[in-house]
């Protein structure tokens, strides 16, 4: 059987990277060798694995050491990416073996969560992943927000090139990581791509010197479109200031297109705003993020409701075992104590769905991801109430 090994630094160029252009880009392309070389620094801290046969790389997978907030606790998360197999070596189990190795390596390095954008979700569901809600795209003419301009709010919005505002941008992302369930922060060596490409404006809403809202965006031409990334804010004032800022672009651009969280309602931003809010889940072009727990420790100490349940985790080599989850103290205590509690059997994907707050126990059963009695469902619902993860922060 062919071996798996980790590659580092420039070695990636003639190993893992040989598979990237064909798998992920428009090919053939004259510039791709140079583009790959230029991208090396952005892979520096990645955990990159390859499968070799006869000295040639036939498959690869990598993980970016990121962080994610799960129910209020920030922890290391492995962002799995660049899973690719040479066309002649596909369907021989290479990706399957690479994923197993990647999980175990990243867990050894202290990553309790993993996330990825799937090409084929059922493959990853068998690996313990569950789909998270997709962000929405809101499109509207900026004059639809004109009514917001008549009011003077405390605070101000300033804008600058992201190259100059990069430190503010990173600091705000770090703050949201600590506050928002599901929020993801990539490591510095990847985040600097935003600064180096310098192809964005950054608008920051501040009050008393504190940043409370942030928006990165581009204007694609006079009368064209203002294309904004994620609408990020810590409170309603931050959002209102940024919406006022967008309103100021009336008749400069004809459309604003902006990414918003799954539980944002743009139709409530202003009276009679004409807005289209949409999302599309499609594979492999527009996949929702999937996430999983690599360790039960991810739940230890999480804020929770007053439930108490014994779970048996099955069909997963990392999580397999029996655990008592006790939330009667306000945070989850995990132990291997037996007896005296309602019991449920869960797959890793079932547990992950409950932990991220995107599945009700009934959904877990309906999707074949576990067996849960009515009593255990009641306890799980109290312990892990529904949450909407804000899976912002692409790598
Ligand atoms: C997707 C890809 C990485 C799979 O690699 P692979 O080494 O062939 O995968 P494996 O042989 O380990 O297959 C694992 C399982 O994935 C699923 N799978 C793999 N390729 C599939 C395909 N084309 N269609 C449907 N399912 C597929 C199957 O469930 C398969 O198990 P099975 O063969 O027992 O049915 C490879 O086809 C590839 O490089 N594609 C282009 C890039 C890409 O899409 N990467 C994934 C990004 S998340």
TrEMBL record:
Segments crossing the lipid bilayer: none
GO MF term (any one): aminoglycoside N-acetyltransferase activity
N-acetyltransferase domain segment(s): 2-154
InterPro entries documented for this protein: Acetyltransf_17, Acetyltransferase_Eis, Acyl_CoA_acyltransferase, GNAT_dom
GO annotation, biological process: aminoglycoside antibiotic catabolic process
Superkingdom of origin: Bacteria
PANTHER family: N-ACETYLTRANSFERASE EIS
Protein name listed in UniProt: Putative acetyltransferase
The organism of origin for this protein: Longispora fulva
């Amino acid at each position: 059987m062919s071996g798996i090994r980790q590659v580092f630094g420039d070695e990636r160029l003639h190993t893992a990277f040989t598979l990237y252009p064909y798998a992920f880009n428009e090919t053939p392309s004259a510039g791709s060798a140079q583009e790959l070389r230029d991208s090396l620094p952005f892979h520096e801290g990645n955990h990159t694995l390859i499968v070799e046969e006869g000295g040639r790389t036939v498959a690869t997978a990598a993980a970016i050491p990121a962080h994610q907030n799960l129910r209020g606790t920030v922890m290391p998360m492995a962002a799995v990416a660049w899973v690719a197999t040479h066309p002649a070596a596909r369907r021989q189990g290479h990706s399957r073996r690479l994923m197993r190795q990647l999980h175990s390596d990243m867990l050894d390095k202290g990553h309790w969560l993993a996330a990825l954008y799937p090409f084929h979700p059922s493959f990853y569901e068998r690996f313990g992943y569950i789909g998270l809600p997709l962000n929405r795209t809101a499109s509207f003419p900026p004059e639809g927000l004109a009514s917001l301009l008549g009011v003077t709010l405390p605070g101000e919005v300033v804008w600058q090139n992201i190259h100059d505002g990069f430190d503010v941008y990173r600091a705000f992302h770090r703050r949201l990581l600590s506050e928002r369930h599901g929020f993801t922060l990539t490591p510095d060596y990847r985040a600097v791509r935003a600064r180096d490409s310098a192809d964005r404006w950054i608008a920051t809403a501040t009050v008393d010197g504190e940043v409370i809202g942030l928006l990165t965006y581009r204007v694609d031409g006079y009368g064209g479109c203002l294309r904004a990334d994620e609408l990020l804010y810590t409170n309603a004032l931050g959002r209102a200031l940024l919406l006022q800022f967008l309103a100021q672009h009336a008749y400069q651009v004809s459309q604003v297109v902006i990414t918003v969280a799954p539980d944002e309602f743009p139709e409530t931003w202003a009276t009679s705003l004409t807005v289209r809010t949409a999302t599309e889940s499609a594979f492999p072009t527009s996949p929702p993020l999937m996430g999983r727990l690599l360790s039960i420790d991810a739940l230890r100490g999480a804020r929770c409701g007053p439930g108490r349940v014994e779970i048996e985790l099955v069909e997963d080599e990392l999580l397999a075992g029996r655990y008592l989850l006790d939330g009667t103290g306000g945070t989850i205590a995990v132990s291997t104590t037996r007896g005296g509690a309602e019991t449920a059997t869960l797959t890793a994907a079932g547990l992950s769905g409950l932990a991220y707050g995107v599945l009700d126990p009934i959904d877990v059963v309906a999707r074949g991801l576990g067996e849960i009695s009515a009593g255990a469902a009641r306890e799980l619902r109290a312990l892990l109430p529904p949450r909407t993860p804000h899976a912002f922060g692409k790598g």
